[in-house]
Amino acid sequence: MKPAPFDYHRPTSLAETFDLLERYGDDGRILAGGQSLVPTLNMRLATPRAVIDINRLPGLAEIRATLDGLVIGALARHDEVEASALIREHAPLIAAAMPHVGHAAIRARGTFGGSLALADPAAELPACVVALDATIRVANRRGTRAIPAAEFFQGVYTTALAPGDVIIEVLIPRAEPQWRDGFDELARRNGDFALAGLAARVCLVGGAVRDARLVFFGVGNAPVRARQAEAALKAAGDVRAAQRALATELQPPGDIHGSPELRRHLAGVLLHRVVGSLLGPAS
Ligand code: FAD
After folding, report:
1. 127 φ/ψ angles, rounded to the nearest 5 degrees
2. What is the mean pLDDT of the chain?
3. Mean pLDDT confidence for 66-94
4. Does the pLDDT value for residue 283 go beyond 70?
5. CB atoms within 10 A of CB 139
6. Does residue 199 surpass a pLDDT of 60?
7. Which of 100, 93, 128 is nearest to 194 (CA)?
8. What residues contact 1, with CB distance under 8 A and at least 6 apart?
9. Binding pocket residue ranges, ligand 1, CB within 6 Å
């Protein structure tokens, strides 16, 4: 199918972008990588009056290390993030997740900010930024603000973004050496959205689990932090205890791709696989 007609704008500054967002209101849509928006337009699931292409905005595609941590620009393409030595060094969790994001062709255009703005509950990057306690920086005509990732994802395709907001970058706090990161997901086919996935971080001190952050995706309306499983892991230092807690804690939805029972089972398998390997000998 072809999209319904729309006005196309390609602003070259944030100020111009804010003008356009204000002019069109709910009838204007930001275009970044287009990997989710364009199919939606083509299928006429969305018929905005204007598409506002932000790809010419300067300075939003950078990946840079700062004293506070790592900054990933909203327009950084998935394949640039995947290939980045800075990401591998400062955010190994994201490096491990990137090959699972769609296929190579999608990663060549899709952007880091677009994936967060879309907030697909089965997407990898929202879970990663929650696990990493990242901050999402957003700009609008009135200024900028920082939204903790834990508050950003509010439901299926729903975020804390307000009308007129543009994600400009994401700050990943500096990695501490005691933390180990692990990532895995289970999908029916390579490149599909996950039936269940896990972005995990475990803080090990003297071989004991001091802290843990277990964020599942594909098993709820948004990234799901499994706090009871985290508590069980800290108390017992044992993956089996965490699995038992997880089995009562997770309430996944069912759909044509998988029942709640299947997703709950897969989440337990991932917990065992990912956290089990993190608790093993340091590599
Ligand atoms: P766009 O499609 O351009 O925009 C998506 C939405 O975000 C739009 O509503 C847009 O207005 C808004 N938006 C974009 N950028 C900003 C911004 N800076 N500020 C505010 N709003 C913004 N994703 C996964 O995570 N995992 C997968 O396994 C996966 N598989 C895929 C398989 C297929 C076949 C396809 C087509 C896509 C898949 N995707 C997957 C989606 C892909 O990762 C997209 O790149 C991503 O979801 C959206 O990024 P984008 O840059 O293409 O955004």
Report:
1. -65, -40
2. 95
3. 96
4. no
5. 19
6. yes
7. 100
8. 42, 43, 44
9. 29-37, 39, 74, 101-102, 106, 110-111, 113-115, 117-118, 120, 123-125, 161, 166-167, 193
